[in-house]
Amino acid sequence: MSSALTIPALLTQRIAAHGSETILRKKDRGIWKATTWSELDARVQPIGRGLLAAGFGPGDCAAFIADTRPEAVYADLAILGAGGASVAIHPEEEAHRVGHILRATGCRFVFVENEEQLDKVLTIKADCPALAYIIIIDMKGLRDFSDPQCESLDAFCARQPSGGDAWAAAVAAVAPDQPALIVFPRGEQAGAGRTLTHNDVMHLVANARERLGVRAGDERLVVLPMADVMEHVLGLYLSLDARIIGNYLESPETATENLQQVQPSVFGADAEAWERLCGRITAAANAATPLQRMLYRWALNPGRIGGSLADVLVLRAVRRELGLNRLRVAYVGATPVSPAVEHWTRALGITITHIGGPARSGDMVDGRYQALMESAYCAG
Fold it and tell me: Bridge partners of 268?
């Protein structure tokens, strides 16, 4: 548990107390590479200093458009540490929607993952008068590209603010009532977005931590985009608070393989992910031998006799195949899983908590938490 009132203050506390501990891993060319709290700090600070050197500060917004990857985390935490508000744009948004978000927030800075995301911003940048800096994370295919508004992340990190330790001063100056995130629910075509202050974010994190029972040393596989509050707040920030190790996919296509390798103790996903997991195992069972099909159906039957035997013969192997054999905490965001999937997961010994969106009848949920989640998730 933390006494911090802002995300930058939380990060500062964790770095000071747990610098040598691993906080995230990334699968790269077949190898899981670990990043400690101190290394996280060493990646966040140069981006934050670059922002400060370019005149970024309280009242400013910066966006990023990327698949969920460590560099998006570094940019997000740098934006907050520099005193600004972070805007996560879903990587599948079309250019016109990207333009709307940049204009609605008055973003002066946008971090783009690669050439694909850069092309979207270049298409609409003339209609975004506040936009001054486009920072490119992955320069693959852009060696000969030149634009006065664009620069690589490495070049941007070479900027240095003048006068003392500007970064430490900026972090210390961030107040709990300052905007931290501006959220744009997918499917909403207009509007100014929903603003969450640092106080709001820390309130959501504290409530989620208590409801879920996560703990230091837990591991999770990161599968959702940071444009989803489920990942941005109840994934990343919850992990920073509870010291959960985040394992980042090698690529979206390797999610199944990476899940099997990590065998996480915490899994926050969406209802669609659980539907895919259920569908994959159901298809495999249907293609199995008659005896295997019979055993699988028997094991899933809530009225069966011999619970321990079903676990030993069938269910443990299913959980291992899915990558969920160590799973202790499972949760979904705005949309709960279907009754059929809920029945399936309960048969496997997995209870999925519906952590976001409207509460089910009878749920005991903090009123402020509920209001914040409904606002962040519901399109207007």
Answer: 331
Burial bucket for residue 334 (CB in 10 Å: 0-12, 13-18, 19+): buried
Contacts of 331 by beta carbon, 8 Å cutoff, 6+ apart: 212, 234, 267, 268, 352, 353, 354, 355
Q: Supply the pTM of this predicted model.
A: 0.93
Are 225 and 34 in contact by the 8 Å Cβ rule? The answer is no
Rounded to whole angstroms, how far apart are CA atoms 32 and 258?
10
pLDDT tens digits, one per residue of 185-221? 887 777 889 999 999 999 999 999 999 999 999 999 9
Helix crossing, 166-173 with 37-53: angle to 10°?
100
Q: Which residues contact 94 (CB under 8 A, 6 or more apart)?
A: 120
Scored b (16 or more CB within 10 A) or e, 4-25 reads bebbbbbbbebbeeeeebbbbb
Q: Give the Cα separation of 374 and 359 in Å (integer).
A: 9
For residues 221, 225, 226, 230, the Cα torsion angle rounded to the nearest 10 degrees is: -70
Q: Hunting for tokens 């048969």 — which residue is that?
A: 347
Which H or E element spans position 72?
Answer: helix 70-81
Domains of the chain by residue range: 7-197, 270-377
CATH number among 3.30.70.100, 3.40.50.720, 3.40.50.300, 3.40.50.12780, domain 7-197:
3.40.50.12780
Q: How many residues does the chain have?
A: 380
Torsions phi, psi for 352 (to 5 deg)? -100, 120
> From edge to edge, which strands make up the β-sheet containing 266-269?
31-36, 22-28, 245-248, 219-222, 266-269, 329-332, 352-354
For residue range 96-142, what is the model confidence (pLDDT) as tens digits? Answer: 999 999 999 999 999 999 999 999 999 999 999 999 999 999 999 99
Tens-place pLDDT, residues 6-25? 999 999 999 999 999 999 99
**Closest by Cα among 220, 273, 232 to 64:** 232
End-to-end CA distance of the chain: 34
- Residue partners of 216: CB distance under 8 A and separation at least 6: 242, 243, 244
